[in-house]
Amino acid sequence: MSVLRYSASLPQSWLASLTVPVNKLCIMKITLSKTIFVLCVLLLGACLRADDKITVTIVPKGSSNAFDGAYFASINYDGDFYVVMSNKSQNPVRFWKDWCSWGYYNITFDIKSGNGEVYHLKKKETSWFKNFPDYYIVPPGSYFVIPVNFSRWESIPDGIRNGDAVSLKAIYSTSSDKYSEEFKVWTGVVESEWLRVNIYGLDSRPVSNKSK
User: Fold this and answer.
1) Domain check: are 147 and 193 in the same one?
2) Which domain holds residue 100?
3) What is the DSSP string of the chain?
4) Whole-structure pTM over 0.85, yes or no?
5) pLDDT, tens digit, for every residue of 62-77?
6) Are residues 29 and 122 in the same domain?
């Protein structure tokens, strides 16, 4: 009891002096919390911008200038065009080769018709006589090229007619798994810009997919 009475009779000035370091401590905690928050935002932003260093570009095989000087590109259904994967980072980057199952399905396309309807295109299903993880090593500032031939893909839908002007976008996607971690292969999703093209040769589509 004597201790309690002594504590209760402490001078108010002395008690007030104790609040100074407590207030400073609270301010320090708030400041530290704000600093940590800002650092987290910056790190998150850096992670989100990391894929900007990997780009994908569609390169059509045919292109020309119209009479009015406007540029347009063309793709033939059973002819080759190209997707270029570029490494704009300061370090070598590994990508799966498309002959093996780890890279075969990594490229897909969105194709937008003139009325705004969007279709998703992917490669036809396949099987492998031999299959193992295989990858490119792309040096900083370099690239690799993937040939594409739509006749080897799931057929372009009926909504796209021969000679139509459409918008085409390439999507390159690699999922993370134990092999990508083991071989340090790039994972993520990157998309090209929409490219305005005319598609020809659609009369050679499978009969069941031709426009009626």
Assistant:
1) yes
2) 51-209
3) -HHHHHHHTS-HHHHHHHHHHHHHHHHHHHHHHHHHHHHHHHHHHHHHHGGGGEEEEEE-SEEEE-TTS-EEEEEETTSEEEEEEEE-SSS-EEEE-TTSHHHHTSEEEEEE-TTS-EEEE-BPP---SS----EEEE-TT-EEEEEEEGGGBSPPPTTSPTT-EEEEEEEEEE---HHHHHHT---EEEEPPPEEEEEE-GGGS-GGGS--
4) no
5) 665 555 556 678 898 8
6) no
